[in-house]
Structures are given as structure tokens and as C-alpha cells.
UniProtKB/TrEMBL annotation:
Protein's name according to its UniProt entry: Phosphonopyruvate hydrolase
InterPro entries, alphabetized: ICL/PEPM, PPH, Pyrv/PenolPyrv_kinase-like_dom, Pyrv_kinase-like_dom_sf
Coiled coil start-end: none
Organism: Mesorhizobium dulcispinae
Keyword annotations of the record: Hydrolase
Lineage, top ranks: Bacteria, Pseudomonadati, Pseudomonadota, Alphaproteobacteria, Hyphomicrobiales
Annotated Pfam families: PEP_mutase
CDD domains: ICL_PEPM
Length: 290
């Protein structure tokens, strides 16, 4: 069964699926062990991993390589964040073929102009494409895919751009008309009101995807109460967790002038051996190093 089918089936079975951001094969392994339904190959996280802002600086090749590497270490379906699709509809055709081959189960493509500016930053330059042009990109994505279950998720940044609910609904509906399987609506309001209001007003058949980073009180109970949300993406919690942990440990090592105190508070080296599957190496040594 393809990963795309696995993701679709999971949505049907569970009603709501929980997707964790990942920026490396190791974070993908940890998300799978924790029990998430899938991985978000986040552009924001990968940009941050390279110490770069999320403004279309990471190349498609860098992102694709990471999608492949994560897929090699995790059996979870991967939703690839392809930003604006790396150019116009022609670039989207190429991208979708590449991402499908790399093992992604879905892509999310957003209606901003290229190069984009990250969504949650204060006073970000948020310019949107004409609706017709973005519809062309959605149609191009659908024409390019070969697995019928591969999901094309259209993301509107109308709320992020401050254009209001009516524009967001109009765009979502136009994107559904163009064939999008689901609609991702993003918001940077500090409360869930804006997204809840959008979802209540949404009359389309396409399920909604949300990324509640800015409005963290939107928990599962509140999401399920709206009924139309199929996927919740925890968009940057892997990289933020990693930064929190490293800042804390690095600061303590220098403050303590040694590693004697932090040692008991971080995983033992054996845990890293487990994640690296060193047992397998030992077993293979016994079998083959004669
Ligand atoms: C990402 O994780 O790259 C996203 C979500 O697109 S956000 O950064 O909130 O726009
Ligand atoms: Mg992104």
C-alpha cells in the first residue's frame, strides 16, 4: 500500500490525524516512536536547521534529499511542504514528480508569490498570487502526479496576509474547484477564533488542514468539535524542542565548567546507539565478519 493511501485511510479511520514536523531522519524516527500519524517535512524547520530564514533560500534539492532521508528511516507518510512550488506551474509539474518519486504522500502548496516570506513573522511581506494563477498551479500538480492517492493540499495565506475571511473562503473554494484534495488555512492570530470562524463558514467538501502554532489552545477536543478538520500539523515543534534542549544543556556545561551535572539529565549514549540500530551492526558482524 502506498504511503499516500496509508495517509488517506488514516484520515478516514481516525477522523483527525496528528502530524509532527521533522527536519532530519532522527527527528522522523522520534516522531514515529512517539506515535504520530505522519511527518511534516517543514520548510521552516529545514531552513532553521541550516541557520537560515524561511524565505525560499533552501533549494528544492536540499528539501527533497531530506524527504528521501526521512522516508528511509521512518514508515510514516510524509506531507511535503513545497512552499510556493519553486516557481510557476511548470516548476510545480517538475516538483510534484520529484516529490512523488522521493516517497512523499502529499504536498502542500501555498498561494504566495515566489520568493515567499515565512508566515508567522511580525510585519512579514505577504503577497498572494492571482487566484487563477494559483488554480493553474493546483491543476498542474494534479496532472503531474501518478499515484491517484497522492494528496495535493492547497494552502491559502489570505488570513496571514490580512485579507479577511471572505477572501480566504473565496480562495479555498476556487482551489477546491481546481481539484485540491484538502485546504490548509493558516493564521497567525493568537487565539483560534479566526480559524474556527473560517471552518464554520466553510461549505466546501474538501477537508481542512490547520497548523495551530500561533493559537496553541486549539487542542484535539476543540478541533474535533468543528468536524471539518482532517489533519492537524504541529509545524515547528521538533526544531523548537531541539533548540530548547540544546540551549539549556550548552549553557549548563559552561556554567558548571564541565559535563558532570548535565550528564544525568540527557539521554545516555546507549539511547543514541539504539536509535542508530547498533544492535543490527553487532548481529551483522557476528554473521558476516568471519
Ligand atoms: C512550515 O513549517 O514550514 C510551515 C508552517 O509552512 S509555518 O512556518 O507556520 O508557516
Ligand atoms: Mg513552510
Amino acid at each position: 500500500m502506498s504511503k499516500a493511501k496509508q495517509l488517506r485511510d488514516r484520515v478516514v479511520e481516525r477522523g483527525l490525524v496528528h502530524i509532527m514536523a521533522a527536519h532530519s531522519p532522527l527527528s522522523a524516527i522520534l516522531a514515529e516512536e512517539a506515535g504520530f500519524d505522519g511527518l511534516w517535512a517543514s520548510g521552516f524547520e529545514l531552513s532553521a536547521l541550516y541557520g537560515l530564514p524561511d524565505v525560499s533560500l533552501i533549494s528544492m534539492t536540499q528539501h527533497l534529499d531530506m524527504v528521501r532521508a526521512m522516508g528511509e528511516q521512518s514508515s510514516l507518510p510524509i506531507i511535503a511542504d513545497i512552499d510556493t512550488g519553486f516557481g510557476n506551474a511548470i516548476n510545480v509539474i517538475h516538483a510534484v514528480k520529484q516529490y512523488e518519486r522521493a516517497g512523499a504522500a502529499a504536498i502542500v502548496i501555498e498561494d504566495k508569490t515566489y520568493p515567499k516570506v515565512t508566515s508567522l513573522v511580525a510585519d512579514g511581506r505577504q503577497e498572494l498570487l492571482r487566484i487563477e494563477e494559483f488554480q493553474g498551479k493546483i491543476r498542474a500538480a494534479i496532472a503531474a502526479k501518478s499515484d491517484p492517492d497522492f494528496l495535493v493540499i492547497a494552502r491559502t495565506e489570505a488570513l496571514i496576509a490580512g485579507l479577511g475571511e471572505a477572501e480566504a473562503l473565496k480562495r479555498a473554494s476556487s482551489y477546491e474547484d481546481a481539484g485540491a484534495d484538502m485546504i490548509l488555512v493558516h493564521s497567525k492570530q493568537k487565539t483560534p477564533d479566526e480559524v474556527e470562524s473560517f471552518v464554520r463558514a466553510w461549505e466546501g467538501k474538501a477537508p481542512v488542514v490547520i497548523v495551530p502554532t500561533a493559537y496553541p489552545e486549539m487542542d484535539e477536543a476543540r478541533i474535533k468539535a468543528l468536524t471539518k478538520i482532517a489533519i492537524v500539523i504541529y509545524g515547528n515543534h521538533a526544531i523548537r524542542a531541539a533548540v530548547t534542549a540544546m540551549q539549556d544543556v550548552f549553557e549548563r556545561v559552561l556554567r558548571d565548567r564541565g559535563i558532570h551535572n548535565v550528564n544525568k539529565d540527557i539521554v545516555p549514549v546507549e539511547e543514541i546507539f539504539r536509535l542508530q540500530k547498533m544492535d543490527q551492526v553487532k548481529a551483522d558482524e557476528k554473521r558476516f565478519l568471519v
